[in-house]
Specification:
This protein is α/β, with parallel strands linked by helices. The chain has 20 helices and eleven strands. It has helices spanning about 25-55, 65-75, 90-105, 105-130, 135-145, 150-155, 160-180, 185-200, 200-220, 220-245, 250-270, 275-290, 300-305, 315-330, 345-355, 360-375, 390-410, 410-430, 455-460, 515-520, and strands spanning about 440-445, 470, 485-490, 490-495, 500-505, 505-510, 530, 535-540, 545-550, 550-555, 575. The longest helix is centred in the N-terminal third of the chain and has 30 residues, at about 25-55. The radius of gyration is 27 Å and the shape is globular.
């Protein structure tokens, strides 16, 4: 079956030019061809312009924690040490290494991969929308998608997560054609699903039900179904073997991935919520982040009171979205761009709905794009309610602040805040280092309540000259292991116990939340100075050892009567990283 570029009476084809006779060179045919082709040219121009504007207008200079893990994987693929974090993304790392062989720079490599993912997703979305609807719908869906705050945020922050949108759309395109009895696309869909699992293993969870249902709907011969299933299984086994080999065996891999999933689900799953607040947190995130695909256009059918004039593929959309959304709601949706498997689908549905709005449809698309841009530019600031506010006013303020914070998490403001935090922190780590005395870096890992400071993993990437004592304050005090690490760039080693041994008369650079609980406790024992983000102390003569939250700070070379000398530290051992 060929792409339907004209309205041949098939269901769902909207606003395509009328069919003309073959060989007809009349003015009407020439006009029809111009009308038919111009959206394609406009779409290509739109994609190029949007990518250039959004990529060259402002791009973060420093890599975030997950991107640092990916950067380390370009040198050594080791998911056991979060290079990258589990489950590993083997095919993405392989492609990134090829690009990096030419680029010779992780930041440039990730920029290229992000651009490629953005262009690929937009192109597949356009082709998909044109097939199931019309060129106009393809054009509009690409606009809604490219300017969606979550995609905009993700393509500036992560080289990996935009590929979730790419393979969601690619599997969706193949599934649509298999759904409509094009049996060869059962195998093509299996290939897309298997390759996508090498980029983003979670795509297998989100998209396997769609592939399976479309395979059943295709009524393909059993030989075709078995061949397609073998393709999916073969790719899954390939990634399994690659990751198991990198992690030192199957048992090590299973333990690491299970521990990682347990750690992530404990924060973002309805099943493991320990309080009402923890229960509401994943629900509010799930609703708000997925709503980013609706907010731009959902008002239009309500305002104009119009229903779509063409049949809408609701059964197909349900098969595409419901399994993945259920997984996110019940188990894990930890970052806004985890929703990129669903966002392009919602943008496509929005374009199909808006196409029924007659002469207002272009205006609606412009308004939708403006709303999306405003959300990305953080145009929904929150503010605390006044103490005299009524219960209703406080409830409204709380709801408004929830929306404001949720939209901030996908905004330019958050990107710039992260950039400022990292830039000033790294500058201060260099500036506060002392030339006349030993300088030691001590960093907190951070908890769910105190995390607004540079991550020790990022420090290890940009400040490579000094080792970092890392205090895992998210591990309960009293645990015999897992509370203390020594970090030297990629080398992360766990130390037994909780004793931090510092040189006598050293300068200690403290990486923690300024004004936070640990900072306040530290000031009870040492004079602490602060910059914008980094704290520092010069250990004074006669300073005694002290304890904070189960961590024992001891000084080498101090008079014996001032503290209990630390016991000898056994040889450190490699550790499985978990931020």
């Amino acid at each position: 079956m060929q792409d339907r570029d004209v309205n041949d009476g098939s269901p769902g084809v909207i606003d395509a030019p009328a069919r003309t006779r073959p060989g007809d060179d009349s003015p009407a045919r020439r006009t029809a061809l111009v009308l038919d082709d111009s959206p394609a040219r406009l779409t290509a121009l739109l994609i190029l312009t949007a990518v250039i504007l959004t990529r060259f207008s402002w791009t973060p200079t420093f890599l975030g924690t997950d991107s640092v893990n990916l950067a380390y994987s370009l040198e050594s693929f080791d998911p056991l040490r979060h290079q990258p974090h589990p489950p590993g993304y083997p095919l993405f790392v392989g492609v990134a290494r090829i690009v990096n062989f030419v680029a010779m720079n992780a930041e440039v490599t990730f920029w290229i991969l992000s651009v490629l993912a953005t262009v690929a997703a937009a192109l597949i979305l356009y082709l998909f929308a044109r097939r199931i609807a019309s060129r106009w719908v393809g054009f509009a869906s690409v606009i809604l998608f490219l300017l969606n705050p979550i995609l905009w945020f993700s393509r500036l922050r992560s080289p990996l997560r935009p590929w979730l949108a790419v393979f969601s759309l690619l599997v969706g395109y193949c599934a649509w054609r298999a759904w409509h009895a094009e049996k060869k696309f059962v195998v093509w869909g299996a290939l897309a699903l298997g390759v996508g699992a090498g980029f983003r293993p979670d795509s297998l969870i989100y998209l396997f039900p769609l592939w399976a249902i479309s395979t059943w709907k295709s009524r393909a011969p059993w030989k075709t179904v078995i061949a397609a299933a073998a393709v999916v299984s073969g790719f899954a086994m390939l990634w399994f073997v690659v990751i198991a080999e990198a992690m030192g065996g199957v048992s090590s891999m299973l333990r690491t991935i299970a521990a990682y999933l347990s750690f992530q689900s404990a924060k973002d799953s309805l099943f493991f919520a320990g309080s009402m607040r923890e229960w509401l947190r994943p629900i509010s995130r799930f609703v708000l982040w997925n709503a980013m695909g609706l907010l731009g256009w959902i008002w239009a059918p309500l305002l104009f009171r119009r229903r779509p004039t063409a049949p809408m593929p609701w059964a197909f959309v349900a098969a595409w979205l419901v399994p993945g959304l259920a997984f996110q709601l019940l188990l894990h949706v930890g970052e806004p761009d985890h929703t990129l498997f669903s966002i392009p689908v919602l943008c496509l549905i929005g374009a199909m709905v808006v196409s029924s709005m007659g002469r207002w449809r272009e205006t609606i698309v412009v308004v939708a794009a403006t709303i999306s841009a405003a959300l990305f530019l953080n145009a929904a600031p929150g503010e605390p309610p006044s103490p005299q506010a009524s219960t209703l006013e406080k409830t409204w303020a709380s709801l408004r602040n929830t929306i404001a914070y949720g939209t901030f998490e996908t905004s330019m403001g958050r990107l710039q805040w992260n950039e400022d935090t990292q830039m000033y922190s790294i500058q201060e780590l260099w500036r506060f280092a002392a030339a006349e005395r030993p300088t030691v870096v001590v960093a907190l890992n951070g908890t769910d309540k105190e995390f607004d400071f540079i991550n020790w993993r990022v420090i290890s990437y940009y400040v490579t000259e000094r080792p970092i004592w890392t205090l895992m304050d998210n591990v309960p005090a009293g645990e015999p292991n897992g509370r203390l690490r020594m970090v030297r760039r990629m080398d992360v080693r766990e130390l037994p116990g909780s004793t931090v041994t510092l040189p006598w008369n050293a300068r200690v650079l403290w990486v923690m939340l300024p004004g936070g609980r640990f900072h306040r406790a530290l000031e009870q024992h040492l004079p602490v100075r602060r910059g914008r983000y980094i704290l520092y102390s010069d250990i004074p003569p006669g300073a005694a050892g002290f304890d904070i939250e189960g961590f024992q700070f001891r000084f080498e070379g101090a008079p014996a009567d001032l503290h209990v000398p630390p016991p000898p530290i056994p040889a450190a051992r490699p550790v499985v990283v978990s931020e």
